[in-house]
Structure formats: C-alpha cells, structure tokens
Amino acid sequence: MASVPAPVRDVFTVCLIAVTALSVDDRLCRRGAVHG
C-alpha cells in the first residue's frame, strides 16, 4: 500500500466511504420503510 500514489489512495478512500455510506443509507431506508 505504501507504493500506491497519494491521489490514487485518496480516490480509493473516497470511493470506499461513499460505498459504505450508500449501503448504510440503503439499509436504514429499507428498515424505515418496513417499520413505517
């Protein structure tokens, strides 16, 4: 991982955070729809 350029690592981190946020948001929305 140390050999990976900083910009690439930044993009990867942002994508990872976005995917995690989307999956969490999707789960919350689905749970809200089920209970609502």
Quick take:
With 36 residues, the chain is mainly alpha-helical. It contains one helix and no strands. 83% of the residues lie in helices and 0% in strands.
Topology:
Layout: H1 6-35
Please explain how this structure is put together.
It contains 1 helix and no strands. The protein has one helix spanning 6-35. The longest helix is centred in the middle third of the chain and has 30 residues, at 6-35. The mean pLDDT is 87. It has 36 residues and is mainly alpha-helical.
Unreliable residue stretches: none
What is the chain-wise order of helices and strands?
H
Largest sheet data: none
Supply the number of helical segments.
1
Radius of gyration: 15 Å
Overall mean confidence score, pLDDT: 87
Helix/strand-derived category reads mainly alpha
Shape: rod-shaped
The span between the termini is 44 Å
Q: How much beta, percentage-wise?
A: under 5%
In total, the number of strands is: 0
Helix content: over 70%
Quickly list its features:
36 residues, mainly alpha, 1 helix, 83% helix, 0% strand
